[in-house]
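Quick question, first post here. What does this chain look like in 3D?
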Amino acid sequence: MKGKKKKRILIISPGPKYNLSNAFEERCRYLSESFYGDILTSGPVKEKAKYGDFLVTCVRDPFGKSLFSAVSFLFLSFFKVWTARSPYSYDMVVTYDPLKTGLIGLIVAKLSGTKLVVEVNGDYTSDWNYAEIKSPLKRYIKKKAMLSVERIVLKNSDGIKLLYHGQVDYFLPLPRPVIGVFPNYVNASRFHNVNDKQEVLFVGFPMYVKGLDILVDAFNSISSDYPDWTLKILGYYPDKSELDALLGSSKNIFYHPPVDPDEMPEHIGSCGVFVLPSRTEAMGRVLVESMAAGKPRIGSNVGGIPTVIEDGVDGLLFESENREDLARKLRMLLNDPGLRSKLGGQSARRYQSGFRPSVYFEKLVNFYERV
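> Answer (accepted):
Ran it through. Tokens below.
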């Protein structure tokens, strides 16, 4: 960036963030080569941190992703944009999603005349995103409301970052925004192949969106043939009774409470096989982390998962919600150490060639500059 003036950007990234350094330090260091500005997020404690040329402001939100943080983001966004003075005003507002933060970003961008970039990190048209809502009427209302907000935000965006082609086809036509399609940044530099336990690892929540019931059924159907293998479930389940009901008296299946991001490299780096059986998924950051760790991976053939797993080359894909197909893919890997080693090795090589941070930020900077 020598001889070229840096652009100033405001990034709204919802929480909860429990470790600011893990979430933002490396990201800010790379972004600071081309940009400077502010990042707004939320977490269990109020704090600020300066990484490179970015000031990260974390709003205290004791309720997680609540209306409290949304109101705080809106207030702080207005404050930062309104107090900025030319020639130091913001050149662009970037939001993590086209929903709550997208709407905040749109309001701020429109009133300040700033360009808006929206990241789309999910498929909000999928009914599975609303499966946790028990009332059919409430499910219908929430889905309609979210899709209405997404449509408004996307149609008023100057740039849209997607994770896979076709992700927002539901909302076409769009008024010719700049489109970027590439995987998200994942801070996976600390992920390595630590061990090869006879352990199938699952990481994620909510339970049914991530397809945990599919994996439990598939594993139970073959576990008697592989008594030395275990299935470890790692995730946040506030209502443990639902998980207990799913597991029942299953043998060789264990639950591990959620851990700090700093502990994830040890868990992923030690498993023998990593599985993400999601019913809907835009990318799956854990698939990139397990890729960096050189693990053989199995994922459902849905959404953006095929963009991070090439079937038969660096992992295996199974037909979404097909328990028998997943069981077959598990057997293939549990039966064949050579195949596990081959797929895991190719995973690590693919991470280095296409998913490491420097590759991501080169694409991101180019996308921002086009906007």
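The radius of gyration is 21 Å.
The CA atoms of residues 130 and 136 lie 10 Å apart.
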